[in-house]
TrEMBL record:
<feature type="compositionally biased region" description="Basic and acidic residues">
    <location>
        <begin position="284"/>
        <end position="293"/>
    </location>
</feature>
<dbReference type="GO" id="GO:0005730">
    <property type="term" value="C:nucleolus"/>
</dbReference>
<protein>
    <submittedName>
        <fullName>Jg21775 protein</fullName>
    </submittedName>
</protein>
<dbReference type="InterPro" id="IPR016024">
    <property type="entry name" value="ARM-type_fold"/>
</dbReference>
<dbReference type="InterPro" id="IPR040000">
    <property type="entry name" value="NOP9"/>
</dbReference>
<dbReference type="GO" id="GO:0000480">
    <property type="term" value="P:endonucleolytic cleavage in 5'-ETS of tricistronic rRNA transcript (SSU-rRNA, 5.8S rRNA, LSU-rRNA)"/>
</dbReference>
<feature type="region of interest" description="Disordered">
    <location>
        <begin position="1"/>
        <end position="37"/>
    </location>
</feature>
<dbReference type="InterPro" id="IPR011989">
    <property type="entry name" value="ARM-like"/>
</dbReference>
<feature type="region of interest" description="Disordered">
    <location>
        <begin position="279"/>
        <end position="309"/>
    </location>
</feature>
<dbReference type="GO" id="GO:0000056">
    <property type="term" value="P:ribosomal small subunit export from nucleus"/>
</dbReference>
<dbReference type="GO" id="GO:0030686">
    <property type="term" value="C:90S preribosome"/>
</dbReference>
<dbReference type="GO" id="GO:0003723">
    <property type="term" value="F:RNA binding"/>
</dbReference>
<keyword id="KW-0677">Repeat</keyword>
<feature type="compositionally biased region" description="Basic residues">
    <location>
        <begin position="13"/>
        <end position="31"/>
    </location>
</feature>
<dbReference type="GO" id="GO:0000447">
    <property type="term" value="P:endonucleolytic cleavage in ITS1 to separate SSU-rRNA from 5.8S rRNA and LSU-rRNA from tricistronic rRNA transcript (SSU-rRNA, 5.8S rRNA, LSU-rRNA)"/>
</dbReference>
<dbReference type="GO" id="GO:0000472">
    <property type="term" value="P:endonucleolytic cleavage to generate mature 5'-end of SSU-rRNA from (SSU-rRNA, 5.8S rRNA, LSU-rRNA)"/>
</dbReference>
<dbReference type="GO" id="GO:0030688">
    <property type="term" value="C:preribosome, small subunit precursor"/>
</dbReference>
Length: 464
């Protein structure tokens, strides 16, 4: 009966496996005498860390209590830093506390871990601590630059004292030197911060770059130049780890050196995405005496299989292509569109993995003359796209339609709005949840320029 009920309810969601509770597992193994993986710590210290993690899990809203807890725990670790960060439980706790650590405690961990930095970077647990230290040090070393930039943007009516930073110059210098020291160590991985939204590219939110010292920018340039000089550079997009590295590198270089960004994208396009020596396969090499019983649509689909560039055959490379679309300028964007997407949008939009790439292509299109052929190419595939369930392609970037409509002259707008069908377009424009207030105001001001307005257009102004 149970199986039949499950089969008769297609809407019933598949139950996900419950995630393992870290603290519960830690207590379970502690009873067996196993104080976490990695280095061993005393049982009393292990139990103390478990209680602290339980307190953190419950939440501490009072800043003073949180500050006292961080100071007490880090004070307890004095003299045992290396042993604690090498333990699974100790690493978990210290990683949570370091962002709130005092300058003295953070510098103490810097001094302790720096001599063995190369060896510790390959440790399963200590490497997470070094990653957190690098992130926190970089934030503290550049925080005063962000405050200065905010003050420059404001127009002060009268002189006022500028509270530049809550950290001393000595601590900022220490954080700055530690950040640079990471780069000086050979064979040390570049760490990527794990944020709440791990999607790449960050198309859902605006990417804001921080102001950093020139030394940091030179590190990025040198790293990009060294990496691009590798003979294996063309193969890097097709591996998960190296593709993610190149994505982060493109985002970092975008705000550092525009020419270097252009060079990297061109090399990826010419050597990896759609190589110059790549030739589309049409399937003519198949045996002529083989009986083909497929339908015409299947034949067409198989024929188009080989017409896609190599980049679309690998998911890691596809994600890197999306990053390249995000950081590219107009001319480079046009080259990517011509080499990889033109006359293939309908085919790409109906595929589960590749329809997101089409959405990113539309998201980053800033030229009206390029958007129109994209629209025309997808128009004939609407039924197939809807049948596949890839509706995101059809609703991607409504701002493109809005901007195209606002680029029309006042006379052209009046002609559209006075039409019986045009009134419905205008109604959707003014009531649509994805259309901003500024866009609606711009439409009204454009209409005011017109010499004459009909009753339909007047009704539009009243409803907006």
């Amino acid at each position: 009966m149970g199986e039949e009920a499950t089969d008769n309810n297609p809407l019933q969601k598949k139950q996900r496996k419950k995630r393992k509770n870290f603290l519960k597992s830690a207590k379970k193994y502690a009873k067996k005498g196993q104080m976490g993986r990695g280095t061993q710590i005393p049982q009393d210290l292990f139990d103390y860390f478990v209680k602290i993690l339980e307190t953190i899990k419950q939440g501490i809203e009072d800043p003073d209590e949180r500050h006292a807890l961080v100071n007490n725990v880090l004070e307890r670790t004095k003299g045992e830093e290396l042993n604690i960060v090498g333990n699974q439980l100790g690493c978990r706790l210290i990683e949570l506390l370091l962002p709130y650590a005092s300058p003295e405690d953070l510098e103490r961990y810097m001094d302790t871990l720096s001599p063995d930095l190369r060896r510790l970077c390959s440790d399963n647990f200590t490497s997470h601590i070094i990653e957190t230290m690098l992130r926190v040090s970089c934030e503290r070393a550049t925080e005063h630059l962000q405050i200065l930039d905010q003050l420059d943007d404001e127009v002060p009516k009268k002189k006022r004292k500028k509270d530049l930073s809550k950290y001393t110059d000595e601590h900022i210098t220490s954080c700055h030197e530690f950040t640079l020291k990471i780069w000086e160590k050979p064979k040390v991985n570049m760490f990527v911060e794990k944020v709440g939204n791990p999607s790449i590219p960050p198309h859902a939110t605006e990417m804001k770059y921080k102001f950093v010292p020139d030394e940091y920018k030179e590190i990025v340039k040198e790293f990009a130049n060294r990496l691009s000089a590798w003979p294996q550079f063309k193969d890097l997009p097709y591996k998960n780890i190296t593709s993610a590295l190149l994505q982060v590198l493109l985002y970092a270089v975008k705000n550092t050196d525009k020419n270097l960004t252009k060079t990297l994208i061109k090399r990826l396009l010419n050597e990896s995405f759609a190589p110059d020596d790549w030739v589309p396969t049409t399937g003519d090499d198949e045996k002529k005496d083989k009986i083909d019983v497929d339908s015409e649509e299947s034949k067409e689909e198989k024929k188009n299989e080989g017409s896609l560039p190599p980049v679309f055959e690998n998911e890691s490379a596809v994600r890197l292509l999306e990053a390249a679309l995000f950081v590219s300028k107009k001319k480079t964007y046009t080259q990517i569109y011509a080499r990889c997407f033109i006359n293939r949008l309908g085919q790409l939009a109906t595929r589960k993995m590749l329809n997101f790439t089409v959405q990113r292509l539309i998201d980053n299109c800033h030229i009206k003359e390029e958007f129109e052929p994209m629209f025309d190419e997808l128009a004939s595939k609407y039924d197939a796209i809807l049948a596949c369930g890839n509706t995101g392609v059809l609703v991607a970037r409504p701002a493109k339609v809005v901007s195209s409509l606002l680029e029309l002259s006042a006379d052209e707008l009046l002609y559209i709005l006075c039409d019986t069908k045009g009134c419905h377009v205008a109604d959707s424009f003014c009531k649509g949840q994805f259309v901003g207030v500024k866009a609606r105001d711009k439409l009204i001001w454009k209409l005011k320029v017109g010499v004459q307005m009909t009753s339909s257009a007047c009704f539009l102004l009243k409803t907006s």
